Amino acid sequence: MSLHDVSPDFVQSLSEQLPEGTLRSPEPRYLEEPRGRSFGNGGVVALPRSVEEVATVVKACNAASVPVVPYGGGTGLVGGQIVENGAKPVILSLERMNKVRDVRPLENVMIAEAGVILQDVQAAAEAADRLFPLSLGAEGTARIGGNLATNAGGVNVLRYGNARDLCLGLEAVLPTGEIWHGLTRLRKDNTGYDLRNLLVGAEGTLGVITAATLKLFARPKSVATAIMVVTDPTAALRLLAMARDIAGESVSAFELMHQNGMDFVAETLPDVRLPFEAAPEWSVLIEVGTGSGAEGLLEGLFGEALEEDLVEDGLIAQSARQRDDFWNLRGHIPVANKAIGSVASHDISLPLESLPEFITEMSAKIAAQCPLRINCFGHLGDGNLHYNLFPPKGGDRHDYDGIRHDLSAQIYDLVHQYGGSFSAEHGVGRLKVGDLETYADPTRLAAMRAIKAALDPNGIMNPGAVLAP
Questions:
Q1: Which range marks the domain in which residue 70 is found?
Q2: What is the pLDDT of residues 368-418, one digit of tens each?
Q3: 298: nearest Cα among 384, 306, 439
Q4: How far is residue 147's CA from residue 136's CA, in Å, rounded to a whole number?
Q5: Is residue 166 part of a domain?
Q6: What pLDDT, on a 0 to 100 scale, did the predictor assign at position 1?
Q7: Where are the strands (E) in 162-320, listed by range?
Q8: For the chain, what is the domain count?
């Protein structure tokens, strides 16, 4: 079925069903993704305050075959929130649905609306002496509904899992406008198909998440953080195994950093404190959280790794400020990347044992073709790397526009050969729809299309995202 532009008559009819001020013209922030590579169009922005108002909007769109684009914090990096072509949609922003409805510390559960900013979810958990562990660079603007819709990852996946693993239940509006009241607090509910896990990670193509039941955790009483200089990625991988042997499941983060990342920070963000006078080629940021003695665990790890020639140097944070400095460095690497301007960025995952070989092989292939700088960094503990290409110092990224798609294809081809994924935590959105068509198992892709057709027969929900039209 063909989709229709938002028309003045449609806006007038919908506005009569909603409180005054719910509909407005799109501001520029709704029409551009953070990297400035995608610019969208929109007919109208809807700003509902309740699940019933969301249902009213979706039901009207379904009846009129008008597309709906769910919008969270707008921080997605694969264009899932931006429609460049096709019928002008209703941009359905959840920003006014921003209440924490309930916190139950005894159950380790929180119920939050989709528009709550991730940082505010974390703060609400902390106020109850609990931890909500999802943490990522955009947590000051990203909203929990979008985090769930994209199955966001971040720095603590190693210990706590992705957004999917942190969700017990959902409230959502399906493409027909029906409300699913699924805000269960149960840890066990073995009663058929798991609609929650179908909507989490669907990027708004199967419905609109309006609220979620989230898992909370005890706050570690003892936290220790270190940066250790490793000889190479193979040594980093062996250090991870050693850390788990010594500290077990208390290892919450294990981040790989490359010299180029620190150099980019030094070049573009001079106020960020760096741990070493000269950036090492490879280092890892490790964090351990336990009931007690976390610093001793890291001291023991460093001593043993030094004996095994896995590390060459290291710093264990001696204060909360130094710990914040370590994480501030890691958090500003993407900011520095943006300031430098990438030729092409890649969010990939590989089996852990394949990571070092991939890094060596792919870097050699790039070097043989052009003098690009590579910033390879990310969540080594869960196999997720950000493998980003940059022009040589003084160069312009646009000089490589003619080859950047070919370079990305080479990277994804090698990732696929190693049994990895072209999208580890950012999702598919619209930018990677072609990659999904290329690399996905055909049977899985057919099943995804069948699910989409069954739940959204008119194709109104975020059309063009995840699945090709």
A1: 8-95
A2: 999 999 999 999 999 999 999 999 999 999 999 999 999 999 999 999 999
A3: 306
A4: 10
A5: yes
A6: 66
A7: 167-173, 179-182, 208-215, 217-218, 222-230, 251-258, 282-290, 311-316
A8: 4
